[in-house]
Amino acid sequence: MVRIGLLGCGNIGKLIAAKSGSCCEIVAAYDRHDDRRKAIAEGTGAIACENFSEMFKLDFDVLVEAASISGAQAYAKDALSSGKDLVLLSVGALADPTFRVGLLKAAEEGDALLRIPSGAIMGLDNLKIGSISKLRRLLLRTTKPASVLGCDVAEKQCVYRGPTAEAIKRYPRNINVAVSIALAAETEVEVEIWADPAADSNTHEIFAEGEFGHALMRVENIPCPDNPHTSYLAVLSVLALLQNYNKRLRVGT
């Protein structure tokens, strides 16, 4: 069973901890909020660390980042350069090409792996064909409750249409999937974000067209308890990644 350090003990971290028993052992937990890290420690037997330096001295294999883009920017490089693998949930941080290149350099220096969970969508593995077979079009259409996006609209409305980099700047807590898709396919993604006052779930639709043919993937996600910005599927994808981390048989592209 893989041994992890958990960076970020908020709603997502709590869900990972609650279901961690079958897929990983949480050795260390760090969050800038004292009560959060102590709650994780009490529930899992992990050591509640007062700072990242203390956490870094402990013996674990993988750092699971469940904090924020700013948290990833602050600590990810140090983890990778020291030889610890990194599972990055705040994939929006990789929209910055300078930061992305720096992370990959740190991973090379530390002989470590940078892993991106599939997150709140399906079909991410097959989008990797974009690196070897031309995709003529790749569109992500995301629809979320208007309140989640901070929009005051009376009816369903498109509030953003444009490239991934700008989308993650405007909606850093809501559109990480666009960055994951762009990284997997190695091509630019058209992004549409729709605010719907009648919606009670987060919906992602991916339209892909290329030499392989056409594909449409649609996922209607139940939001995480206490965190409507994040889909529960995103948490489950992290747990699945950890459960299969060291397996000899791996299914999928």
How would you describe the overall organization of this protein?
The protein has helices at residues 11-18, 34-44, 52-56, 69-81, 97-110, 146-149, 164-170, 176-185, 232-243; strands spanning 2-7, 24-30, 47-49, 62-65, 85-88, 114-115, 135-145, 157-162, 190-196, 202-210, 213-221, 223-224, 227-231. By secondary structure, it is α/β, with parallel strands linked by helices. It folds into two domains: 2-119 and 233-244, Rossmann fold, CATH 3.40.50.720; 124-223, Dihydrodipicolinate Reductase, domain 2, CATH 3.30.360.10. Strands 3-2-1-4-5-6 form a six-stranded parallel beta sheet. Helix 4 (69-81) links the parallel strand 4 (62-65) and strand 5 (85-88). The model has no long low-confidence stretch (mean pLDDT 94).
Number of helices: 9
Biggest beta sheet attributes: 6 strands, parallel
What is the subunit organization of this protein? Answer: single chain
Taking all Cα atoms into account, the compactness measure Rg is 18 Å
**Under the CATH scheme, which architecture of the largest domain would be assigned?**
3-Layer(aba) Sandwich
Strand content: 25-35%
Mean pLDDT: 94
Please report the total strand number as a whole number: 13
The CATH topology of the largest domain is Rossmann fold
- CATH homology superfamily name of the largest domain: NAD(P)-binding Rossmann-like Domain
CATH top level label of the largest domain? Alpha Beta
Helix content: 25-40%
Query: What is the SS-derived class?
Result: alpha/beta
Instruction: Count up the domains.
Output: 2
Low-pLDDT windows of residues: none
- The coarse silhouette is globular
Give me the strand/helix succession.
EHEHEHEHEHEEHEHHEEEEEH
Cross-sheet strand order for the largest sheet: 3-2-1-4-5-6
